Amino acid sequence: MTDHVLGPDELLTTTRSVRKRLDLTRPVPLELVRECLEIALQAPSGSNRQGWHWIVVTDAEIRARIGEYYRRSFEAYQRSRPPAEELYPGDRDRIEVQHRVSESAAYLGERMGQVPVLVLPCLRVPGGELPEGNQAGLWGSLLPAAWSYMLAARARGLGTAWTSLHLVYEREVAELLGLPQDVRQGALIPTAYYTGDTFRPAHRAPLAEVLHLDTW
User: What range(s) does the Nitroreductase domain occupy (predicted)?
Assistant: First the structure.
């Protein structure tokens, strides 16, 4: 638990994706993860189905194997991405930020399997096949709970990051974890104590650039 009690606005604006500052050597008590998940279970879900399931991985060998799948997927993703200079031509500030993000993402890509706890939020999907078309309702029954988990972790001195690149190997990871056919993975959330505590609101584009009243 952190010594500094976070108010709701500070909690919401300083819960960052933690990658390079995850403490890979300090064990995370399972009871602390359970506390965060108990809070996550209070999130809303479509028709109150509560169809979520949570895979918490602490076994070193399983973490390493999941980490290897993630590393492969991240390297392929990294090769496919254009450089920041092409994405944001002339915007030096944004280019510098993206370089830092890319560097930290690469750091985690190499070390995902070393993170003390890996949490995989999952959903039961009838037949195991994702529906065609708009899936907002489906994943909208899982993402609020996953975000609540991440907020609860932040309030307790734990860092997390939302990742999903392992889903390129979703079937292989499902077999590794013994998941039933109708259980689909939504994300992979590394969880560890973080080093330092200088989290602050991130720079974002002004609200005026993305707010539309009544019409576009």
Answer: 14-183
Cβ(70)–Cβ(164) below 8 Å:
no
CA 90/CA 71 separation, integer angstroms? 31
Q: Which amino acid is at 111?
A: R
pLDDT at 2 over 70: no
Give per-residue pLDDT as tens, 136-164. Answer: 889 999 999 999 999 999 999 999 999 99
Distance (Å, rounded) from C-alpha 193 to C-alpha 158?
A: 4
Domain 8-209: state its class: alpha beta
Mean pLDDT of 187-202: 93
